[in-house]
């Protein structure tokens, strides 16, 4: 687990962290501009990378025909990823998002027939009655502290198909793991906590350790060079593909 000092153990601090996230979405319009933090020019390279990643996983049989039957998009916003990426490959997609305005907006902004359910729920409280071949979590875990993320990872492990995949696409701090050296002490890499805006940027190693703790094994990870080229100066964007074991 990550250094507990960084993850707001006091109840008041934790509530303030999540209140910052809620305030941003409650006071912003339910649009792509909001869910991309004003960086709408990243939408095209982001979609291109994600489609390429899924094709790679299908071609290598990491995503089987069984896995293609149903996917879950968690923290889905207005449904951009479901509409422009997941609907191209999966027979059915369920969308889970805690902000009601974003879910309502998804009906018109992301109307694809393959999006079957649009569920208003916090991710940690969502317990489905079906299994998913793939769970996609994009730019959402960076708004969730370790305590709640631990619950979410445990739940996701339970509703993934055998050998199902969890895809985490987010900003990370590069470290020994992203450099291909495994998880080793790295004094130059440490997580960044911006509690005033409800944001935590984990190191790659921190994320991998959490995944391992809750029954996942990293299958591959890829750096989104297209997004990084389109927006200089942001924290590196990676997709971590973890298999349920």
Automatic annotation (TrEMBL):
Tell me which family the UniProt entry assigns to this protein.
Belongs to the methyltransferase superfamily. NTM1 family.
Q: What is this protein called?
A: Alpha N-terminal protein methyltransferase 1
Q: EC number(s) for this protein?
A: 2.1.1.244
Q: Which reaction does it catalyse?
A: N-terminal L-alanyl-L-prolyl-L-lysyl-[protein] + 3 S-adenosyl-L-methionine = N-terminal N,N,N-trimethyl-L-alanyl-L-prolyl-L-lysyl-[protein] + 3 S-adenosyl-L-homocysteine + 3 H(+); N-terminal L-seryl-L-prolyl-L-lysyl-[protein] + 3 S-adenosyl-L-methionine = N-terminal N,N,N-trimethyl-L-seryl-L-prolyl-L-lysyl-[protein] + 3 S-adenosyl-L-homocysteine + 3 H(+); N-terminal L-prolyl-L-prolyl-L-lysyl-[protein] + 2 S-adenosyl-L-methionine = N-terminal N,N-dimethyl-L-prolyl-L-prolyl-L-lysyl-[protein] + 2 S-adenosyl-L-homocysteine + 2 H(+)
* Swiss-Prot/TrEMBL keywords: Methyltransferase, S-adenosyl-L-methionine, Transferase
- Please provide an example of a Pfam family that matches this protein in its UniProt record: Methyltransf_PK
Native organism is Aduncisulcus paluster
